[in-house]
């Protein structure tokens, strides 16, 4: 059986982490002992099984992690990695030949589920499929059984998730369970996409975009990506203040180990050793504690956004923004300090508006915006404009909102560009040219919602651009605003816990969805 180039790419991405995770210590962690009271007679066997499963740790650990890789990787570890993963996952329907027997409570739950599955319980069938495929709760992975359960659900129940998983297995031939068949992969994925499965819609969109299992068809690709984009935009606007903070940036696995060639051979902050990052953070904290306003704002931004080796922490961000916001400008010529204070006040307005690390409070948000506007904060001007537009705290006033948006836009604030552009579209005589120009500015400022609005303008024929531009904009949007369909959090969590097989499977799914990072 041949592996696609896409699968090879996933193997390469894992070079920086996999071999180190099993080369020195192949001991297995056993699930912790748990207590579970006997279920009451009136509880169904399925509910009994789920109660048993929920009483156990869900994640599994394939191998205990060893020391991180610090030298060149391709030379010494490529052959080991490819041989290990190729044989263990691609050639074997059961990737758990080295694992210990399942925990007794897991065996009990599985027996209950199997009995229910024989009676046609769709939930039991689906749970068994997931257990066998993803090896949840340390259940022995059996891709053949997973395929059988998914196939049963797909054909008998029309389950969209099951249809997508069957399509995925036909696309990759994973586990040597079925022969790779891109036509069947597209067929099952299309059924799943029609059933509203976001991941499947991305898979189908990518297949039509790249001509995998079908001829290239940009219009069909746009159709699928737009469905996902619409849902993502709807979710974005469902947050407090009608907007959510985008998901954290995705982490490339080689960056976990200093890049492709290790810490010693890469420059730049993204490839710093975690201990070095902590040293820098500690030094910056010490400066911040001594009242260094630049250090305080830097820490605030770091904790607000999160990043490589640093988890997002709104409470810590709030603390540092608050310290900066209440600082004093020494004299009128101290414009740099004034700008930093303005930033902090604007960000505090945002945090209170959305309830990030603090109790959501529009009145307090308004007060911080006012204080920020006094120092010409673009964030605060945009925030006040949004409040006037929606009549939050103040009386609704579209003209006043427009004035604030114009001020923020003149300062180059990307979100204000979009807000002003949307006002141009809502005018009695829509101004598509100006809206497009503003959306383009926001796009150039890497404001992700602008991708969607540009795509919509072009798709509706208000701006002349090729279909390829539309699909690229939608694709970039859904790959960044992917709260509802991202495989990356589960993939990265599995990797960090040492479950390299599951990480590989989830990153392979990301590749089938068209993602280009992992």
From TrEMBL:
GO biological process, one term: ERAD pathway
PROSITE patterns assigned to the protein according to its UniProt record, in alphabetical order: PROKAR_LIPOPROTEIN
GO CC terms: endoplasmic reticulum membrane
InterPro entries registered for this protein in UniProt: Sel1-like, Sel1_AlgK, TPR-like_helical_dom_sf
Keywords per UniProt: Signal
Signal peptide start and end residues: 1-23
Domain of life of the organism encoding this protein: Eukaryota
Database matches in SUPFAM superfamilies: HCP-like
Record-stated family: Belongs to the sel-1 family.
PANTHER family linked to this entry: SEL-1-LIKE PROTEIN, SEL1L ADAPTOR SUBUNIT OF ERAD E3 UBIQUITIN LIGASE
Name under which the protein is recorded: HCP-like protein
Organism the protein comes from: Basidiobolus meristosporus CBS 931.73
Organismal lineage: Eukaryota, Fungi, Fungi incertae sedis, Zoopagomycota, Entomophthoromycotina
């Amino acid at each position: 059986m041949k592996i696609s180039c896409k699968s090879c790419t996933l193997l390469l991405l894992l070079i920086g982490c996999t071999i180190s995770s099993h080369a020195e210590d192949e001991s297995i962690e056993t699930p912790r002992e748990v207590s579970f009271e006997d279920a009451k007679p009136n509880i169904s066997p399925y509910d009994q099984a789920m109660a048993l499963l929920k009483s156990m740790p869900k994640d599994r650990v394939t191998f205990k992690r060893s020391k991180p890789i610090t030298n060149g990787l391709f030379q010494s570890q490529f052959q080991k990695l490819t041989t290990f993963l190729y044989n263990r996952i691609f050639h074997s329907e059961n990737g758990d030949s080295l694992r210990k027997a399942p925990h007794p409570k897991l065996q009990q739950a599985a027996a209950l589920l199997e009995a229910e599955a024989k009676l046609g319980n769709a939930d039991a069938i689906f749970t068994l499929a997931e257990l066998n495929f993803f090896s949840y709760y340390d259940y022995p992975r059996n891709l053949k059984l997973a395929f059988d359960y998914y196939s049963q659900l797909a054909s008998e129940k029309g389950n969209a998730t099951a249809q997508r998983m069957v399509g995925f297995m036909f696309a990759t031939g994973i586990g040597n369970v079925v022969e790779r068949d891109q036509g069947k992969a597209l067929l099952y994925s299309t059924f799943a996409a029609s059933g509203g499965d976001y991941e499947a819609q991305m898979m189908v969109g990518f297949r039509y975009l790249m001509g995998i299992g079908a001829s290239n068809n940009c219009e069909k690709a746009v159709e699928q990506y737009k469905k996902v984009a619409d849902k993502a935009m709807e979710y974005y606007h469902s947050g407090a203040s009608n907007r959510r903070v985008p998901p954290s940036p995705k982490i490339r696995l080689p960056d976990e180990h200093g890049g492709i060639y290790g810490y010693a051979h890469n420059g730049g902050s993204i490839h710093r050793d975690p201990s070095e990052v902590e040293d820098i953070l500690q030094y910056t904290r010490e400066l911040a504690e001594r009242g260094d306003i630049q250090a305080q704002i830097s820490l605030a931004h770091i904790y607000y956004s999160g990043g490589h080796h640093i988890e997002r922490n709104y409470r810590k961000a709030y603390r540092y923004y608050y310290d900066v916001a209440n600082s004093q400008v020494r004299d009128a010529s101290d414009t740099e300090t004034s700008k930093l204070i303005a930033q902090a006040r604007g960000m505090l307005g945002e945090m209170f508006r959305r309830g990030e690390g603090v109790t959501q409070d529009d009145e307090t948000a308004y007060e911080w915006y006012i204080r920020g506007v006094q120092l010409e904060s673009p964030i605060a001007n945009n925030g006040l404009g949004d409040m006037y537009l929606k009549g939050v705290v103040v009386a609704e006033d579209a003209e006043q909102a427009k004035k604030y948006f114009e001020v923020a836009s003149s300062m180059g604030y990307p979100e204000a560009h979009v807000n002003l552009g949307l006002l141009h579209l809502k005018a009695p005589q829509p101004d598509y040219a100006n809206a497009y120009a503003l959306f383009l500015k926001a796009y150039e400022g890497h404001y992700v919602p602008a991708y969607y609005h540009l795509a919509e303008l072009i798709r509706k024929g208000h701006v002349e651009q090729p279909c390829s531009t539309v699909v690229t904009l939608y694709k970039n949007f859904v790959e960044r605003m992917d709260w509802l369909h991202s495989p990356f959090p589960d993939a990265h969590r599995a990797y960090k816990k040492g479950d390299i097989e599951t990480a590989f499977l989830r990153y392979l799914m990301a590749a089938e969805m068209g993602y280009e990072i992992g």
